[in-house]
């Protein structure tokens, strides 16, 4: 029993809380009055979810690297309701190219949440994972976490592939952990396959 607890504690220590979780922890009270006012304006603009001008205004703020992170995140969050427009390409662009790791992580989460088609979300995230440079291990871990959080069959297939074939041991280990967390027949079958591999 003691040995199991030590292994469990090791797992919790090693697995990072994804950056987006800490980013979402920012509270509006921490913003200066000017930023708060702009955030309130963004949320008010976001009430018109089918308005092209509102969409463009939010998009501009989300993509503007000179804006405060809180304001950019508020724009990203508000854009999620603009289903009539191509919000997915904005999130993908930010996840790929933005200089802020917190914005990249938030964009990854919105990719997962923003589409009703979870298979499409997993495809987009898988593509991001496969095209992210290997030295950006934090982003790779976050993409893996977001895919695991979707947890559908396509996500299980991807996690199984990473667990069996990826060159980075930490990512393989994370994938195995996520398969165990997802559970279900398909995830267990993937774990049995890993166990039997030579």
Walk me through this protein's architecture.
By secondary structure, the chain is mainly alpha-helical. It has 12 helices and no strands. Helix 3 runs parallel beside helix 5.
Key terms for this structure?
198 residues, mainly alpha, disordered N terminus
Shape estimate: elongated
Give the low-pLDDT segments. 1-17, 19-26
List the total number of helices.
12
How many E strands? 0
State the order of secondary-structure elements, H for helix, E for strand: HHHHHHHHHHHH
Beta-strand percent range: under 5%
- The helix-and-strand class reads mainly alpha
The biggest beta sheet reads: none
Portion in helices: over 70%
Radius of gyration: 19 Å
Euclidean distance between termini CA atoms: 29 Å
- Determine the mean pLDDT: 84
